[in-house]
């Protein structure tokens, strides 16, 4: 089977092409017996738009006025985030994107390679938000995807999202879909219409048992803390 992208020997050319080939040899324009195929004309042109996300380095930490998380949720948050006792600077302690699970389950999630840096940073930033707004009883995240994107986006002095540097809903939605394939998150089958993004999105996001284990949460202790209110979603096991 011939490949249109591979060079051909002159003897494989048709009669007219062979004539042109030997004319090129006589004129000194051809120095090889292999002939590269001509590229087919196409109207496709490489775009000049940037493929970089609007917000390349999103970060999110619990504001000082938020009530401190307790129990296993607090343990998970403290594993993710640390505060320098000297300077008071808050920064990530754990980069979730580097967890071995994302290497071990890569093929199951449909990936061949690791995450790009911009996706790593978004993944590292989303987990403190997910833990912070996780409902202690139902173990669901108390925000829809568009609200999560808004929470992660940079804001001006009036608290409004800066459009030029926002975390878009579509970008975050793709990330969450991929986390579902990895098995660390689950979404509800029920969708709701999101006015801001003008699309149907899952109504709830769940942190699965595997997702909690990835963060070092003791599931037995978590169940005990929730008591009769603990309601693991069927897709969260």
Task: Describe the model.
The chain has helices spanning 15-27, 71-80, 101-104, 117-132, 145-152, 169-182, 209-214, 219-226; strands spanning 8-9, 34-35, 81-83, 90-92, 140-141, 185-187, 191-194, 199-202, 205-207. With 237 residues, it is of the alpha+beta class. The chain folds into two domains: 1-37, no CATH class; 71-236, no CATH class. α2 packs antiparallel against α4. The longest helix is centred in the middle third of the chain and has 16 residues, at 117-132. The mean pLDDT is 83. Keywords: DNA replication, Plasmid. This is Replication initiation protein. Residues 34-57 are annotated as: Disordered. InterPro entries: Plasmid_replication_init_RepA (IPR003446).
Query: Could you tell me the radius of gyration in angstroms?
Result: 27 Å
Total individual domains = 2
- SSE pattern, N- to C-terminal: EHEHEEHHEHHEEEEHH
Mean pLDDT: 83
Placed side by side, the strands forming the largest sheet appear as 5-9-6
């Amino acid at each position: 089977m011939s490949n249109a992208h591979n060079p051909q020997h002159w003897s494989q050319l048709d009669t007219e092409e062979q004539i042109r080939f030997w004319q090129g040899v006589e004129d000194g324009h051809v120095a090889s017996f292999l002939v590269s195929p001509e590229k087919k004309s196409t109207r496709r042109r490489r775009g000049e738009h940037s493929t970089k996300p609007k917000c390349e380095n999103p970060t999110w930490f619990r504001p000082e006025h938020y009530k401190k998380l307790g129990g296993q949720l607090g343990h998970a948050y403290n594993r993710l985030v640390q505060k320098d006792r000297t300077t008071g600077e808050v920064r990530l302690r754990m980069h979730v994107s580097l967890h071995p699970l994302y290497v071990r389950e890569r093929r199951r999630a449909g990936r061949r390679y690791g995450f790009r840096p911009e996706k790593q940073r978004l993944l590292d930033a989303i987990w403190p938000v997910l833990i912070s707004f996780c409902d202690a009883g139902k173990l669901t995240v108390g925000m829809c995807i568009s609200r999560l994107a808004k929470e992660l986006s940079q804001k001006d002095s009036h608290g409004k999202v800066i459009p030029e540097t926002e975390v878009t809903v579509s970008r975050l939605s793709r990330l969450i879909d991929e986390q579902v394939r990895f098995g660390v998150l689950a979404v509800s089958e029920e969708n709701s219409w999101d006015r801001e993004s003008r699309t149907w999105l899952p109504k709830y996001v769940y942190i699965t048992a595997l997702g909690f284990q990835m963060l070092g949460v003791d599931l037995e202790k978590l169940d005990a803390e929730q008591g009769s209110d603990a309601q693991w979603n069927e897709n969260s096991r």
